[in-house]
Amino acid sequence: MNVLDAIAVLAAGVAAGGINAIVGSGSLITFPTLLALGYPPVVANVSNNVGLVSGNLSGAYGYRRELKGQRGRLLRLGSASLIGALAGGLLLLSLPPEAFDIIVPGLIMIALVLVVVQPRLQGWLQARREGMERHRPDGGPALWLGVLATGVYGGYFGAAQGIVLIAILGLALDDDLQRLNGAKNAMAAVVNGTAALLFIAMWLLSDTVIDWWVVLLIAVGSTIGGLLGAKVGRRIPPLVLRGVIVVVGVAAIVQLLAG
Question: Alpha-carbon distance 36 to 177, whole Å?
């Protein structure tokens, strides 16, 4: 990795950390960047996942005020995130790399659609909560299963898992969106952290490839970005963020299909 490549990966990490704290689709910045620099898709995905963990943690820390009073909820739903992440990570490691090349363009396309429709989705969720007369404080079994499925997705690839999480939390829980966003950040940290530990264990025990320079640069960048995103990210025009994500995501799809 030369100096220019390192700067590009670091900058992508900062952007991803900030976007993850605000929206939840930061991998649509870092993953395509690694593809453009020539990294194989699975190596890029695994290294990106491990590197983004610190950014997830810093984003969750930035929302610590919104997380107050949610300990029980996070413990309960965090168990679903953990189990799902293990399942998704094992799928990534057990399926042939060719399967990843086929599946991921579709996942990125779904993620891009979610990024585009997010404002309408949030408005609909807000209107739904205002009209709710009765609700289950814990969201019930359906919410737990939804978080589990999102964890599987996050452990396998993970781009836009935050958008999926905020959607299902908003559907199932009658709570302020900022508090739900804090919970989303915490659960995304559980998913990425669990998958990262699995990938590191497999790296120690087998031939799973992790590029540790990539991990270091994304970790440093995403940590800074997570803190900035939680503090000042709301000042960035959402349309600009979504536009950048869509452009980079489409570039990733083209790169994967061309490869």
Answer: 35
